[in-house]
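User: Here's a chain of 225 residues. Predict its fold as tokens.
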Amino acid sequence: MTFSLVARCATTGMFGMVIASSSPAVAARCAHVRAGTGAVASQNVTDPALGPLVLDRLAAGDSAAAAVDRVTAGRPHIAYRQILAVDRAGRTAIHSGAAVLGVWGQAQGRDCCAGGNLLAHAGVPQAMVAAFEAAPGALGDRLVAALRAGRDAGGEAGPVHSAGLKIADRLDWPWADLRCDWTDDGCPIEAVARAWAVYAPQAAAYVQRATDPSAAPSYGVPGDE
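Assistant: Prediction complete.
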């Protein structure tokens, strides 16, 4: 009931991921990014604790494969989990347990990997990887292209109700964290895409306001909170 992609931007060093699901607020539980470290999706009968555990191993210097191996080795209930990871070198790793739900799939590409469960067909993750690799523009643009490609390739077997996009840059907090936690119209992916189109031109200004407000644009203009 979920499809996702994690990725690194080789140009900027940013990490990001996109995810969509029939479950509510999927990005709140499954999306994990850390500046200078990596991106992780922890999904399918989700244990949200697994994402930070993998990121901790990546921060300690493990490759994506080593980090996923260490976190999954001997862990209770790990057969139910699906974990995707990308590290600071762009290496990727995927764990899909024996009890992953329904039709599932996974795919690895250049600086990215994708996976899903309860899919319309097993080729959905490969469509996401291909779209990410082919898309131009900023990391967020490429992530949106991948999420749309997963949907257009069939997505999951049931209706999609929530989606999210999360990006880490240089700071401890996410550079972008955009979510549609529930919609009945079947269009959470487009809701996130619209939010990205609005947010992207303002993202640098929000970083500036946090790090050096004295140099930030004058207050009282649209976009100030």
